Amino acid sequence: MSQTTVVTGAEILDRATALSEQIRAWRREIHQYPELSFTEHRTAGLVNAVLVDLGIPTETEVAKTGVVGHIHGGGGPVVGLRADMDALPIHEESGVEYSSTRPGMMHACGHDAHTAMLLGAATILKALADEGRLPGSVRLLFQPSEEAQDAEGKSGGMRMVEEKALDGVDAVFGIHVDPTYETGVVGTRSGPLLAAADTFEITVRGRGGHAARPHNAIDPILLASHAVQAIHHIVSRRLNPIESGVITIGVIRGGTVDNVIPDTVYMTGTIRSFTPESRQVLHDELRRACGVIDALGGAFDLKILNGYPPTITDETATAVMMAATRDFLGDENVQIAPQRMGAEDFSYMAQQAPGSFLRLGTHDPAWDQPYFVHTAQFRMDEKALPIGAAALAAAAVKWMEQAAAQDAE
What we know:
This protein has two domains: about 10-190 and about 310-409, Aminopeptidase (3-Layer(aba) Sandwich); about 195-305, Alpha-Beta Plaits (2-Layer Sandwich). Helices cover about 35% and strands about 25% of the residues. The chain has eleven helices and 16 strands. The strands form four sheets. Strands 1-2-4-3-5-16-6-15 form an eight-stranded mixed β-sheet, with helices on both faces. It has a four-stranded antiparallel β-sheet with strand order 10-12-8-13. Strands 7-14 form a two-stranded antiparallel sheet. A hairpin with a 3-residue loop joins strand 1 (about 60) and strand 2 (about 65-70). The protein is elongated and about 85 Å long.
């Protein structure tokens, strides 16, 4: 097979634009039938059927409900492209004509778009391979369950890594819709991009009693209030000021009636950090802050549940992604993305191979407000779909071409 390796970004965008209606149709089909984490059977079936129709060999039931496709081009590197497929337990109130048909479930984070865009990229890359113009191979990673973990505490990304879906991959690229950018604008950065997200649970133990006789009790509500104050001083006084972190208490639950001091109070919340070092500091200082409960005569149980690690992107892979998108969007529309305290299990894939993660603008400037992810009103400008498909395909091709150029030196 002859290898013509020069594929321009403009050509890839033209191919993606020609697929716009199809990509939109895939996205709307998935959007109308959302499926929660590790139940993405219908979505996986659609993905598999499209890939098989394209002549792309597939593996199904990877990481329970995931699909992996293999596009074989020339003898160059293997590039992984990832899309997540799961929806959220949110009742849709977006008002779009293709709203969810399933009460209490909604693609409120754009995973339907990610999946459709990767199908578009797969279509483009398979055509290039058939033309003898793909100087490498592509592994299509349609991942389940980014939003949640199973009973073993594992997400789809974790399970895909465990099941060796990333073995032999030389680089991996992902994408996420971003309503803070207008359509036609994208952003990413090298290094820490998204935070680690851990969960903590605290049970404050006191001694219950009559509310009119607090001196005979050890009030766990008072103990919890002191703990809350101590916890909220951790970031400002215990974390290095040049580091970023967040500790938020999201639930406080205790007591049943107004005239009884309870025995216990339960609290839970989230810890966000960008580096392993700051993550450890926040964990250690959380335990130290809870020591105020002991000092005031109570006791506590603290459980810290490790969530996704920080998403740390590779410098070379990110440079490739930015160069690939600049080719067809222009320098001014490819930005250095700010760090965000959200978390992503793409982080596990980026630990296995050099990775980069693109923020894709989806805000229609004609709208009077952005429609944010994880809300019942979320919506996206579908003109972003071919841009996302082109970005994924172009990043894969750019990585392959740079590898081929290095081999030729």
